[in-house]
Each structure stands twice: as structure tokens, then as C-alpha cells.
Specification:
2 domains; Rossmann fold; formyl-coa transferase, domain 3; 395 residues; 36% helix; single chain; alpha/beta
Length: 395
């Protein structure tokens, strides 16, 4: 039996933050029902990249879910939604604040239907505050939080991260909130509302930026691929043109690096004796390391650093990640089969529980794949009643 077996989750969300949160719960054993509009389903199913006529984007965030369709604009569809919510342990939604209320599903109504319900509401700026009605995407939160100001080359423009880091982070906080509420419910018997804002979550990524500004007036900004607090810790180019990231900035690691690159004399120079001293000569320190990596191939550099016990990694391409032997050994390149796509590979389940491990039970579903099955399992509907709902355009 898996860790979250028995929990029933209704996932009304779209895009990444909500769906990824639901997928993590599904990976750990919850019965997660993805709800989409009849016909084309979630908007992201139409986004590139595509395999033939099918989008790949939606697959990444929706394994271990069963999929149903529901017409939120239909009175019968809204009534059915409330029936499903009455049976759910958890509901995940990321509509614009106020949308759920327009469907007759405000928190007070839902709590009256199901006092054990845990409702996760994901939005850009939260359910309260002067910005609550504003639309928001990942890069908008990166910009508004200061994270984009911290990202990029020192003399370049602010840049977003290379992935949807805010959405992923928000999904993780969503899981933490849900599991905290589940634990609290064991004692109280009652659920609760979780108000989760992308901007709030992103602020938690800012390291020392806020207290540093408050105490000293100094504003953190971009430093490229350098570590802010130690050196050498940066990307260095190798003889073959490849890049490697070496982090040997601590006072315990720097002597190992000096020995590994044939620069033991640096250890006798007070200017290199401590990290604080080296930070004052960061350009000189990095030039020494760069000159050494420039005389060796990336594989030679990685091997030498590994032998010296220094944290180091080649800056890999996606193709190299796809074939990474460490990831394969830990089942992090997972193979799934989808009715529309056939066999495909995707990132695996990173949480490794010794007694109740996550498993693949459901491949990412096609639109409405399990509608009849779920209405029977959750609500006990028979085929005649389901056919009537379909005729009424409720599902």
C-alpha cells in the first residue's frame, strides 16, 4: 500500500503549479481525478511541443491521474462538481480569484458540503490584497519577486530561470500545505482552506536579500554563474569547449583544489588563506582555475575533481541527461505508455520511500478517459445516469 492510499483528490487546475502538485500526490498513492472541459480538454494540450497532433506539455504534469470531463458553465455540470467535492478529501484549483465563487463553490458553501474538505487555492498573488485579481504566470512572479533581478550575467539584462521554477516551487509548497492540513485533520476532523500565492512562494527563494537590504541597504543583483559567497565557484570552460561547474570555495575544499591543479604554492600566500580573502581577489582566483581547465578536456577535469573529492559537474545537454547512468540507476528516466502517444519517457518519481514507495499506476490520461469509471467509483452512477449527463452536455 502506498503512503497516500485512500486520499481522494479532485484536481481542477491547469498549466503547471496545480497539476504538478496533484501529480506528486498521485505518485504517492492518492486517487487523483483530473477535471477538464469536454472536447479539447485543458488548454495546454494544444501547446507545443507536439508529437503528431498531440501536445507533450500536458503529459509532464498529469501521470498517476484519472481524467474526467465536466462542463463548468452548465448548471448540471456545476451540480455534479459539488457532488464530487462532497466526496473529495482534497480539491486543487488555480482559477483567477473569484472564479470558483461564480460557480457556486465558495469556501463556505464547500465547507458546508464537506467539513473534512481541504481546498488548495493557487493564484498569482493570493486571495487577498490589492493585487489579488491580477493575472500571473511564472515569469511574472520571477520579475515581481526580485528573482529575475538576481538572475543573469553581472553586466547583462535580468533573465528568467531556464525552467518554470516558480510553478514547480509553488506545487511543492502546495503539497506541504495539503499534507499539513491532512495531519491537522487527524486531530480536528475538519479540513481547511490553503491560500497559496506564487509571489509569496517566490519570495522564499531570495536567500539573504531581504534582511541584507533591511540591515545594510545593500541590494543583491546578478552575478552570473558565480556563487555569491565563496570562490572559486563558477562555470569554467575546458580545452574541448565544454563547460564545467566547480565549487571549491570553502576553506576545506580550496586546499584540495590547489593540490589537484598543481597550485600548492597558493596555500602559502595569505591572500588565498581564507574564503574572505579570496573573495577580495575573485578575478585572480577564477583566472587561475580557468587557465588550468583550459588545458584539459571536460572529462579530464571531472575525473581530477572527482578524485580530489571536489564538487564538480559537466554542464550537460538534455541529450546527455537523457542517457545519464546515475538517473537511470535510480529510475529517474521513467517509461510510460499513453493511449495517444504510445511509449514515452519522462522524469521519474524523486521521493524514495523505503516502505511505501511511489509507483506508476496511471499513464498521463487522454481527455475524459476515465469519466464513466470515476462517476461510478466516486458517486455510484449507473450507465443510464451517466448517459443522461452526457446528453445534457454536463460532461
Amino acid at each position: 500500500m502506498q503512503a497516500l492510499h485512500g486520499l481522494k483528490v479532485l484536481d481542477l487546475s491547469r498549466y503547471i503549479a496545480g497539476p504538478n502538485c496533484g501529480m506528486i500526490l498521485g505518485d504517492m498513492g492518492a486517487d487523483v481525478i483530473k477535471v477538464e472541459s469536454p472536447g479539447r480538454g485543458e488548454e495546454t494540450r494544444l501547446l507545443p511541443p507536439r508529437k503528431g497532433e498531440h501536445g507533450i506539455y500536458t503529459l509532464v504534469y498529469n501521470r498517476n491521474k484519472r481524467a474526467i470531463t465536466l462542463n463548468f458553465r452548465s448548471p448540471d455540470g456545476q451540480k455534479l462538481l459539488r457532488e464530487l467535492i462532497a466526496e473529495a478529501d482534497i480539491v486543487i484549483e488555480n482559477f483567477r480569484p473569484g472564479t470558483l465563487e461564480k460557480m457556486g463553490c465558495d469556501w463556505e458553501t464547500l465547507r458546508a458540503l464537506n467539513e473534512r474538505l481541504i481546498l488548495l487555492r493557487v493564484s498569482g498573488y493570493g486571495q487577498t490584497g490589492p493585487w489579488s485579481a491580477r493575472p500571473c504566470f511564472d515569469a511574472i512572479a520571477q520579475a515581481g519577486s526580485g528573482l529575475m533581478e538576481l538572475t543573469g550575467e553581472e553586466d547583462g539584462k535580468p533573465l528568467p530561470a531556464g525552467t518554470f521554477i516558480v510553478d514547480y516551487l509553488t506545487s511543492l509548497y502546495g503539497c506541504i500545505g495539503i499534507l499539513s492540513a491532512v495531519e491537522a485533520r487527524h486531530g480536528t476532523g475538519k479540513g481547511q482552506l490553503i491560500d497559496l500565492a506564487m509571489l509569496d512562494c517566490t519570495i522564499s527563494l531570495l536567500m539573504t536579500a531581504l534582511p541584507e537590504y533591511a540591515l545594510t541597504g545593500h541590494e543583491l543583483t546578478r552575478v552570473g554563474s558565480r556563487d555569491r559567497y565563496s570562490t572559486p565557484a563558477n562555470n569554467f570552460q575546458c580545452k574541448d569547449g565544454r563547460w564545467v561547474h566547480i565549487n571549491a570555495g570553502s576553506d576545506s575544499l580550496f586546499p584540495r583544489l590547489a593540490a589537484a591543479i598543481g597550485q600548492n604554492h597558493l596555500l602559502q600566500d595569505p591572500a588565498f588563506a581564507s574564503n574572505s580573502e579570496r573573495l577580495g581577489r575573485i578575478e585572480e582566483v577564477e583566472a587561475i582555475v580557468s587557465a588550468w581547465t583550459g588545458r584539459h578536456t571536460v572529462e579530464e577535469v571531472v575525473k581530477r575533481m572527482d578524485e580530489a573529492g571536489i564538487p564538480c559537474a559537466r554542464v550537460d545537454t538534455i541529450a546527455e541527461v537523457f542517457h545519464n547512468e546515475q538517473l537511470k540507476a535510480r529510475d529517474q528516466i521513467m517509461e510510460v505508455t499513453n493511449p495517444a502517444y504510445g511509449t514515452l519517457k519522462m522524469a521519474g518519481i524523486p521521493i524514495k520511500l523505503s516502505e511505501t514507495p511511489g509507483t506508476l499506476r496511471h499513464a498521463p490520461p487522454v481527455v475524459g478517459q476515465h469519466t464513466d469509471e470515476v462517476l461510478h467509483d466516486w458517486l455510484g452512477y449507473d450507465p443510464t445516469r451517466i448517459a443522461a449527463l452526457r446528453e445534457a452536455n454536463a460532461i
